[in-house]
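User: structure tokens for this one?
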Amino acid sequence: MTDLSRREMLGLLGVALAAGAAGCRPETIRKAAQRATPYTPTFFTPGEYDAVTVLADLTLPADKRGPSASEAGVPEFMDFVMTEEMDNRERMRTGLAWLDTESGSRFGKPFVAASARQQMKILDDIAWPKKAKAEFEEAAKFFNEFRNLTATGYWSSKVGVEDLQYIGNTVVPEWKGCPEPQLKKLGVSYT
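Assistant:
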């Protein structure tokens, strides 16, 4: 098996998560991204929304393949999900508050005001739940859910769907099998 880039791994995760996303229609979720005026969050406070935007972009930054999570409308998506999803609201708010508290104790400033290097130091401690120290266990659970929601939002957005090269419900008149380059990449063959 080949190594996947972070974006490819999150893309696969996004496909899986988007399939089970609470029955939300992408065009409904994306209306905020099409507005001429700035988006006003309905669930998040302005400070929380700023933190969500920064954290989403740290999770999925712009690269040669595509725009950042915020450019794809992920913060708006998350705000919409949080208005509908009752079960995860407390963890989201608690996790965002933890980021500010942790950043304040380490660097003397809120998470959004910290440098990118400082923000990444905090994320390094919570990025992998199985590797996180006991003191970061709850924060790691929060970030894991946040990362999943970021992936779902990104790969259900227009740019995410284009990145996945998803063609939708298209009639395939003749199945010719998996293309040879993909078979080679996966290390498999029909023989």
